[in-house]
Amino acid sequence: MTVHRLSPEILSAMEGAVGPSGVAISGSDMAKYLGDWSGDHRGGALAVLKPASAAEVQAVVRLCGALGLGIIPQGGNTGLVAGAIDIEARGAVVISLERLNRIRLVDADNFVLQADAGCVLQAIKDASEAHDCLFPLALGAQGSCQIGGNAASNAGGVNVLRYGMARDLILGLEVVLPDGELWDGFSGLRKDNRGYDLKQLFIGSEGTLGIITGVELKLFPRPARIETAISALPPSKRPSRCSGKRAGPPPT
Ligand SMILES: Cc1cc2nc3c(=O)[nH]c(=O)nc-3n(C[C@H](O)[C@H](O)[C@H](O)COP(=O)(O)OP(=O)(O)OC[C@H]3O[C@@H](n4cnc5c(N)ncnc54)[C@H](O)[C@@H]3O)c2cc1C
Question: What share of the chain is helix, strand, coil (3-state, %, to 5)?
Fold first, then answer.
């Protein structure tokens, strides 16, 4: 069955899944979830649902599955490619992870941090620093983007050459699958050669395979000192390769 209208029964089922404060249906309440960061795109939604636990995400996924409603997971909505909004306004439900925002564990001895997927990246970095550790993922959107969105989009950022992509910084994931089951992929292990590395399927999958509800991250020792260097080179005197002219001999 496909539903495109929000009947009182469906509204009541949504409120049953996430509580009345977890449901937004009016234009003004939904507005901030329907536009992308750049301001270039706007979408539509039947409702915005804001679960506050993995169990509530499971309930929402099961409900939407039963009603035939499309689901769009949304983190900080900073992805810049309109992936977290429904620009065709097909009556899908936006599931915002913003209320899933608990740091679950910082284990500085083992350099591991576990957190809800809706934690803002900056909060993860701050919690790591408070334990004299570093979580190196860093990007301009770190004050708004969420760690689940970073995982779902395999974010890179400014430290990628030294520490790798989000893919290289994740030890484990917890994911609600399309049938509402919870997949617990936390292991805490750096050396783990058991079978398939399923978390890597979800990293970079942009919400197409499941909704990430928890992340287990690799921490690093916090650098004792940071030095910044700038290297400037004189402009080349060679004719540009793009100018259409044949390059002559190198200037003497
Ligand atoms: C100023 C600025 C600078 C940026 N710099 C960089 C950069 O240096 N390097 C880089 O790689 N990117 C950069 N980005 C883009 C970057 O990918 C995003 O900022 C960030 O990783 C997305 O996180 P988000 O929480 O905002 O996700 P959203 O934009 O909300 O979502 C992104 C995608 O992931 C899905 N998704 C979100 N949360 C979940 C979840 N919990 N489970 C499943 N799917 C989910 C969404 O459906 C969508 O498809 C930048 C963006 C901005 C605005």
Answer: 25, 20, 55
Distances from the Cα of 226 to the Cα of 125, 132, 229, angstroms: 16, 14, 10
How many whole angstroms separate alpha carbon 124 and alpha carbon 119?
Answer: 7
Note the pLDDT tens digit of each residue in 12-49. 999 999 999 999 999 999 999 999 888 888 999 999 99
**Backbone φ, ψ for residue 232 (5° rounding):** -115, 140
Minimum-distance ligand 1 atom for the alpha carbon of 97: 41
Return the number of other C-beta atoms located less than 10 Å from residue 116's C-beta.
23
What pLDDT shows up at residue 1?
A: 46
User: Beta-strand (E) ranges in 155-226?
Assistant: 170-176, 182-184, 211-218, 220-221
Ligand 1 probe mutation, 145, 150, 202, 211, most atoms within 8 A of CB: 145
Mutate to test the pocket of ligand 1, among 41, 87, 139, 170 (most ligand atoms within 8 A of CB): 139
Mean pLDDT for back-to-back runs of 10 residues, the chain (252 residues)? 76 96 95 91 94 98 96 96 89 96 97 98 98 98 98 97 97 98 93 92 97 98 92 82 56 52
DSSP-derived secondary structure for 85-153: S-TT--S-EEEE-TT---EEEEETTTTEEEEETTSBHHHHHHHHHHTTEE-----TTTTT-BHHHHHHT
Place of tokens 């805490």: 188
pLDDT of residue 240: 63
**Which residues lie across from 24 on neighbouring strands?**
48
